[in-house]
Structure formats: C-alpha cells, structure tokens
Design a protein that fits this description.
This protein has 408 residues and is an alpha+beta fold. It has 14 helices and eleven strands. The strands form three sheets. Strands 1-7-4-9-3-2 form a six-stranded antiparallel β-sheet. Strands 6-5-8 form a three-stranded antiparallel β-sheet, with no helix packed on it. A two-stranded antiparallel ribbon has the order 10-11. The mean pLDDT is 94.
Length: 408
C-alpha cells in the first residue's frame, strides 16, 4: 500500500481502502470483541480500578495491549502491518516509526451527541501552533494518527489543510458560537469497515456523534525516530510486558522500539547537561541530534523546556514522595507508559540540577506566557496564560543560549 507523502503533508489526511485486508476483518472483529469483554469483566470485578473511567465516558477507549494474550495477539501485531506501520513510515518520510498509542474506540452506553472541534495539542505541553506548523512544513511530520473502523464509521470530520495554518476568522466565529456544530470548512470522513484514515493530529477535527450505535475503531498513533524533527508527541502509552504474548518477530520489533526510546532519553539528558554546564557547542550538537532539520530547532527547544519543567515538578518534595499514579497526574499524564520518559529523566538529575534547569529555561518560559489568560477555540485547553499560536518574536536558539547568563 503506497501513499504520496507530499500530498499527505499538503492535505493533512489520507483515506485508504482496505487497510484491514478483507480476509482478516472477521478475525480481527472477533479478537477485539474478546478483549472488550475481558476488560469490561476486569472493571466489573474492580470498579475502583483507575482505568475504569475509560469505559464510562462519551468516548470509551480500550488500551487493548493491556488485555491481550496469545490467542488475541493478532490485534497488536496488526499495528506492525505494512498497511499501518509501513504506511506510517512513508508519511514520516522513511524515518523509523514506532506505535505510541494502541487503542480501540468504542460506543458509550448512553447517547452523548457531538463533541468539541479541536486540535490534539495543549499550549501547556506543546509548542505554539504556528511554530509546530512551520516545523512540520519544513521537516515533515513527526507523528501521525489513525482511525481504522471494524464497522462502517462516519463520526470523524476534518478541516482539510488546517494543520498548516491557524484558524481563520470565520472558523473562530463559528467555533465561539458553537464548538459542537459542523464547521463550514469541514468535511465528514466516511469509512467503510476495514478502511482507514491517517491524519496529522494538529488538523482541526471533530467527533460528530457519540451514540450507542456499535462502534469499534482501531485508534493508533505512530511517532518518528531519526526524522527531520523532534516529535511533539513522543512517550509510549504502553508498557513492554505485553510482548510476551506476541510472535518472536513482533517481540523483536517492540524491543527495537524500546531501544530507540532509551537512546533518545540519553540524548535528552546530554542536551540538558549541556544547558547546565553552559556548554554552547555541546548544546548545539545535542539539539542537532534531536532535531536534525536546521529549520525549526527552536520548536524543539520549546518542547524540551516543557520536559524540563516537568522534571522540576517531579523533584519537588511534595511530589517526589507520591505514589507513581499521583506523580504522573502531577505532570498531567494519565498513562504510566507515557509518563515513563519524565520519571526516567527525573531520576537522572538531582533536585539542585532540576532547579538550575528551571533557571535556564525561565527567560524562554517568560516569553511563552502572557500576563493574562488567553484563549483560542479549537485546542484541547480552556483559557490559559500559555501561548496558543505564536512563537516568541526575535528569540531563537542563539538568544536562548545567551539568556542562560541571565539566571545564573
């Protein structure tokens, strides 16, 4: 299965027929239903399970690798198929690709109707949208997302091309009027069973109707390693223990993914230690390893400043002694898998070093914050002082390095 990476970059999405080969559709339906039943039984036995809320909301998601076994391993191994992992690699311009998220989206028990239009980013955790978009256009995507329904599905709408630009004035007016209504610039994504849509998740998109109609949609996310940029979504939402149920080939593939992630954490540590030491050459070298594309490196600096801030939070005495789930919650992570990168990095720095990292990023953070709360519709965030759209004017990598001396 082939795609045109440039067309995908221009449109922000591509609809593909028979992502699930027709002769595999029934077997995957059967396996996924086993996993749904299995997880529901677990939650019924333990209603206090912290994951139980995931199946009692308007858009239930099953992290299906958590309940997989050898008999249902085909569900996870499908995420390594040429039609999923292979196509994702094409979109990511041939870079190594690894699945971050493996979910099954299901129908709720109650009709909820339409949800909100949004882009899958939050100003608090990612860089301003205009910076992410310029980085994307210059270096290609670092993350792609999939919806692959097991039954016909038309819930998703998208605004073609909106991943490359800010909201128009008309879109903002419509969103401020009603974020649960169709946008005049939007279009429905109608998928037959087994088809798929791959999209760049900074695109404006809309879950148009969460109803009790049977819904089983494989929802996947893949990030790049070694591509032109540093992805704005990066931590795995899975723990590697499930791989024991997979084939030897699949186990080896997931082992490679964990090695790529471990190497990147080493690179982030080197980047941050260069900051601590005010080693300008070492910092530039580490930045170039994390973000090979020369254009857009300041976006990587912003993203890693958010990581440094989370390290600082985890080193605070009132957070350091909390149980793991509460530590994850303290930095805004609900998945232990995606939290692992922050926990790992926090363990590599002393409290004094974390405090100094906070000082190094303080001048940049000040430029990324407004004096009062601001709001732009179409984000996964309400009003916040964090910058929604614009990167700091006149403040690039050189200025960031120069600012280290301002705070010790």
């Amino acid at each position: 299965m082939k795609i045109d990476p440039e067309q995908f970059l221009n449109d922000g999405f591509v609809i593909l027929k028979n992502v699930i080969p027709p002769d595999r559709l029934d077997e995957l339906r059967a396996s996924f239903e086993v996993l749904v039943d299995r997880q529901q039984a677990i939650w019924a036995d333990d209603p206090e399970d912290p994951r139980s809320h995931a199946y009692k909301v308007k858009q239930p998601r099953l992290a299906f690798q958590t309940v997989v076994d050898a008999a249902t391993a085909n569900t996870v191994e499908f995420c390594l198929h040429d039609h999923t992992l292979g196509v994702s690699r094409q979109a990511l311009r041939g870079a190594e690709a690894a699945p971050i998220a493996m979910f099954l989206m299901c129908n709720p028990a109650t009709d909820y109707g339409p949800d909100l239009w949004h882009r899958d980013i939050q100003p608090k955790n990612q860089a301003p949208l205009a910076g992410l978009q310029a980085d994307l256009v210059a270096n290609g995507p670092g993350y792609v997302q999939w919806n692959i329904p097991l039954y016909d599905d038309d819930v998703l709408w998208v605004v073609p091309g909106s991943h490359r630009r800010l909201n128009t004035a008309q879109e903002n007016r419509e969103l401020l009027n009603d974020r649960r209504a169709p946008l005049s610039s939007g279009m429905p994504v109608k998928l037959e069973a087994g088809d798929g849509v791959m999209y760049i998740n900074t695109i404006l998109h809309w879950p148009s109707n969460y109803s009790t109609k049977l819904r089983r949609v494989i929802h996947l996310g893949y990030r790049s390693f070694g591509g032109g940029l540093y992805p704005y979504i990066r931590g795995f939402y899975w723990e590697p223990s499930f791989v024991k149920h997979l084939s030897a080939e699949a186990r080896a593939t997931f082992k490679r993914f964990t090695k790529l992630a471990a190497r990147e954490i080493d690179q982030i540590e080197a980047y941050m230690r260069a900051m601590l030491d005010q080693d300008q050459d070492g910092f530039r070298e580490a930045l170039a390893r994390l973000h090979p594309g020369e254009t857009g490196r300041m976006v990587c600096v912003v993203l890693l400043s958010k990581v440094a801030a989370r390290i600082g939070t985890l080193k605070r005495p009132e957070v350091a002694g909390l149980p793991g789930p509460e530590r994850a919650q303290a930095v805004g992570e609900v998945s232990w898998g995606s939290f692992r990168i922050f926990e790992d990095l926090a363990g590599r720095f002393t409290s004094a070093e974390a405090e100094l990292l906070g000082q190094r990023i303080a001048p940049l953070n000040a430029k990324l914050h407004a004096q009062t709360e601001q709001f732009v519709p179409g984000f996964q965030s309400g009003p916040t002082p964090h910058a929604f759209e614009d990167m700091p004017a006149g403040f690039g990598v050189d200025e960031f390095i120069a600012s280290w001396g301002e705070a010790g």
